Amino acid sequence: MTLFTVCAILVIDQLAASASIGVQSIFWWLLTLVLFFIPYGLITAELGSTYPQEGGIYAWVRRAFGPLWAGRTAWLWWVNVALWMPSVYILFAGVLAELIAPDMGLWTQIALTLGLTWLTVAVNIVALDVSKWIPNLGAAFKAIIMLAIGAGGVAYAMRHGVANSFSLESLRPQWGASLAFLPVILYNFLGFELMSGAGEEMKDPARDVPWAITRAGVIIAFFYVFATVGILLALPADEVGLIEGLTDTFRRLFGAGPAGEVVVGVLGAMALYTFVANMVTWTLGANRSAAEAARRGDLPAIFGRLHPKHQTPANAAVLGGLIATGVLLLYGLLAANAEDLFWTTFAFSSVVFLLPYILLFLAFLRLRRIDADLVRPYRVPGGEGVAWTLSLLCMAFVLQAIVFFIYTPGAFDPAYAVAVGGGVIVTLIVGEVLVRTALGRGSRPDA
User: Fold this and answer.
1) What local confidence, expressed as pLDDT, does residue 389 receive?
2) pLDDT digit string (tens) for 384-423?
3) Among 272, 281, 266, 214, which Cα is nearest to 39's?
4) What is the distance, to the nearest Å, from the Cα of residue 102 to the centroid of all Cα atoms in its chain?
5) Burial of 152 (0-12, 13-18, 19+ CB in 10 A)
6) Phi/psi zone of residue 410: left (φ > 0), alpha (ψ -120 to 50 degrees), beta?
7) Cα Dmax for the chain
8) pTM (2 decimals)?
């Protein structure tokens, strides 16, 4: 349970974005670990072990609030992955350009992103036994990269000095434009619901679940903080680019001489692979979730049609590819450069991604009440007062992330806010139409 959680949640896509906050990011990593990540893990563990046969946000919301809210949740959960895909693959194209083609233009990067998008769609359509090994190798690469950055940063600082001041003053959180990247830290801690059913298979969930979550939290926080420190030991915070940050760090740490360039190339290739592995992992889950929602009648039937040979949710995969393509082309026309395109699409998809988590914590509280007599192999300790406190605390973290993804303190950009906020509103409207259309044809009360 610990290792699965580490593999599912640990990502390097946004490592540079979190490091760009500066040394204060270490404070935010640790604060988010204690006040959000561990409470969120305990809550999802109770839900997953209590409802193991129907784990996941969609199923919990359906049981708590009925088909309408379940359909909305399924839509947001599925579409956010399609919206996220362009930002991940723009990052892929940017890192590849930094490694081998520094003069690669924006539209060449967009073309490469489109190719990767439809490659991911194809992987989703083939049988699961072909595609399931992709994330496993990606997890190993993530650990290697983060350990290399952290250890390389320490070695670099011992030879050349520290690029940023690591003092109590620099650790102190500051109000300003850097808070735009604070939601990235919360974003990087999400994903516990992916292992939501594991509690049923444990011999003693009441004992093992909190320990597994605490261990996973410490390991994940260590990797994130260690790699962030490694970047900040080598690069001044104001030189950490959203796309160039990884390759700049690799070159600063290992790039002197032919041997160093080989190391940079290997780590860069590993990073590129993890981007693809992350998208394969999340799209596999999201497309199957959408197909299940369609089977229950909470989304239109087109989402549930399976590939005739592989019996995979091919329609959901293709629809996701079409949405990712449309978003990429639209925002590509508006963006000034690859970094601008990356951040706008990432922020847009992240707000959509975060919205269902509000429903998750509300569902937890309601299910505590309506299923009070149901046996819970694991229960969040402390009674109802603690359950409410932890849920409200988690919702507050999610809400601040949504606000800061749209509103940047000290550097508010109306055009950017309209691009992100407007995209979210359009996404909600489209989802509402689809869900109500599906429910108008009849929702299955039980699956």
Assistant:
1) 96
2) 999 999 999 999 999 999 998 888 776 678 888 898 999 9
3) 214
4) 28
5) buried
6) left
7) 68
8) 0.85
Answer positive or negative: Cα dihedral of 301, 303, 309, 311. Answer: negative
pLDDT at 127 over 90: no
What are the percentages of helix, strand and coil residues in the chain, rounded to 5? 80, 0, 20
Residues 6+ apart with CB under 8 A from 276: 92, 116, 119, 120, 134, 138
The C-alpha atoms of residue 447 and residue 440 are separated, in whole angstroms, by 18
Q: What is the per-residue pLDDT across 142-186, written as a single tens digit (0 to 9) for each? A: 889 999 999 999 998 998 898 888 888 877 777 665 666 678 888
Residue-wise DSSP of 307-333: PTTT-S-HHHHHHHHHHHHHHHHHHHH
Q: By the 8 A CB rule, do 338 and 113 touch? A: no
Whether residue 240 contacts residue 16, with contact meaning beta carbons closer than 8 Å, is answered with: yes
pLDDT category of residue 441 using cuts at 50, 70 and 90: confident
CA–CA separation, 324 vs 427, rounded Å? 13
Element (H, E) at 26: helix 24-32
